[in-house]
Amino acid sequence: xxxxxxxxxxxxxxxxxxxxxxxxxxxxxxxxxxxxxxxxxxxxxxxxxxxxxxxxxxxxxxxxxxxxxxxxxxxxxxxxxxxxxxxxxxxxxxxxxxxxxxxxxxxxxxxxxxxxxxxxxxxxxxxxxxxxxxxxxxxxxxxxxxxxxxxxxxxxxxxxxxxxxxxxxxxxxxxxxxxxxxxxxxxxxxxxxxxxxxxxxxxxxxxxxxxxxxxxxxxxxxxxxxxxxxxxxxxxxxxxxxxxxxxxxxxxxxxxxxxxxxxxxxxxxxxxxxxxxxxxxxx
Length: 283
Known about the structure:
The structure is a single chain. Helix content is 46%, strand content 12%. The radius of gyration is 19 Å and the shape is globular. By secondary structure, the chain is of the alpha/beta class. The mean pLDDT is 96. It folds into two domains: 3-178, NAD(P)-binding Rossmann-like Domain (Rossmann fold, 3-Layer(aba) Sandwich); 188-274, N-(1-d-carboxylethyl)-l-norvaline Dehydrogenase, domain 2 (Orthogonal Bundle), CATH 1.10.1040. β4, α4 (92-103) and β5 form a beta-alpha-beta unit. The chain has helices at 11-22, 34-53, 59-67, 92-103, 121-125, 159-171, 188-204, 210-220, 227-234, 236-250, 259-266; strands spanning 3-7, 26-30, 69-72, 83-86, 111-114, 134-139, 149-153, 177-178. An eight-stranded mixed β-sheet has the order 3-2-1-4-5-6-7-8, with helices on both faces. The longest helix has 20 residues, at 34-53. It has eleven helices and eight strands.
């Protein structure tokens, strides 16, 4: 793989694009408006500048990564992509529309992947004329650091596509796992979802403050990051979308989120990206 298109300029899309560029791949970030893609590239540049200042990378490394990241405000870069990674909003209708549009643009051998956590891979694949070339590649936040990529087939994904996705993950320096069959949320997100959801209930029901919940899990379970710190990093709106999907798909009340989550989203407290979530990042 040499040419990558990342659809979605949010936290995950930007991180995936940076990862690809760091591994020497020509990468395009696109979104519904060019300004969104340009902001994602600017965030990457800011992050790289901090690494230069700390002596972790050279100015030349930074320039090299940025030279391999271009931006767009439409799906036309699909015409030259070897692989497309969709990381748009967690809305199945929007994702299906994206897949139908890139299917009309991309070469027949281009592989389509989705970074979705819990939406149907098969339904996205069926929006194309090449369902055998569609798979899930679920990256973890931040994509430049986390070693795992979960790969999952839809019901028509070919063995060749799964092998190509696995090889691409390794090309990016990741250590992938491949699920045998499609299931909501795969492995990590399904297990982790209940843990994160339970942590939000502990705060919502007044059992403990967020900082104490996180301290308990870091010191008592040896977690490198507290669950509520992780919810803030993921995005509280993204967390809610995952819980709602799992609650519906699995018919399991353990994924029901507390009203506190709705209240926080209504106030615009979405976590790190908004400056405030369970913690205040504006200070």
